[in-house]
Amino acid sequence: MKASTFADLSLLFVALIWGATFVVVQNAISFLEPLAFNTVRFTIAAILLGLWLVIFEKHQLQKLDKKLILSGVMLGFWLFIGYAFQTLGLLYTTSSKAGFITGLSVVLVPLLMIGILKQRPGMNSIAGVSAATGGLYLLTMSDVSSLNIGDALVLICAAGFALHIVFTGKFSSSYPTLLLTAVQIATVAALSAVSSVLFEDWQRAFQPEVIFSADVMVALLVTSILATALAFFIQTNFQKHTTATRVALIFAMEPVFAAITAYLWADERLTYSALTGCVLIFAGMIFAELPSGKLESFVRKIFPKKEADFKA
Questions:
Q1: Fewer CB within 10 Å: C terminus or N terminus of the chain?
Q2: Can you tell me the mean pLDDT for 83-112?
Q3: pLDDT, tens digit, for every residue of 182-199?
Q4: How much is the pTM?
Q5: How far apart are CA 73 and CA 68, in angstroms?
Q6: Rounded to 5, what percent of the chain is helix, strand, coil?
Q7: Under the phi-then-psi rule, with left for phi > 0, alpha for psi from -120 to 50, and beta for the rest, what region is 306?
């Protein structure tokens, strides 16, 4: 199996984890403040990664330097922005609109790649992004209302996640995976802790009846181990074998997996519009996986007289 194919499948597994744990997190933050929850979640993940690093990958610590720390802190900062502003936005907007706007990171990634990395997306990526964006709209936008401050906050969240993907692609091949992952996860934990103290009733995290409740404990264990430590290690390790745009398209499958999980666990039914959205998102991911030149050849067969300068 090609390295890029295995990388894409691994990243799809990450999207599956995030989508499957969405309901679990929703239940947990009804008991514990969101930023406080993220503080505990990312702290546990950072400790687990740190222990693994010290016990099994101690040689990586020799490569810890200022550049690696700054790179990890930058990744952690954008990741924190994504989680924090999504939480703030949900206070003022609906979850369906927040889901769609967060998913717009799939559009922002190729734009940021042009502006930051000077890399132009190919025809396959453009087609995939277009299909996935339409699918996200059909899947998540069950209500259409005027824009509000919450939507603007969630748009900042989408930009944060998009920048995290772009810079992960830039830094992942330059530093040891486990060490870089540990630094960024610890950064998110620290920033979440400071924000929780400033903006939330953080003392609830120290109340035994809250932190040791079944819903919170299950959510913390599942998200800290699978959805944080393992997921971001996989992203940091395998993104070096693929492109940032393809990663964004693969991660656009998260709401699809969330919808499937809701159907299986909570017996929630999808509308025909939502089902169409799921198909379009999946099609968008497939477009990005097509061999270079296939889509361009198909377009040229349809429009043989038109000259098009598509970059493979």
A1: N
A2: 84
A3: 999 999 999 999 999 998
A4: 0.87
A5: 8
A6: 80, 0, 20
A7: beta
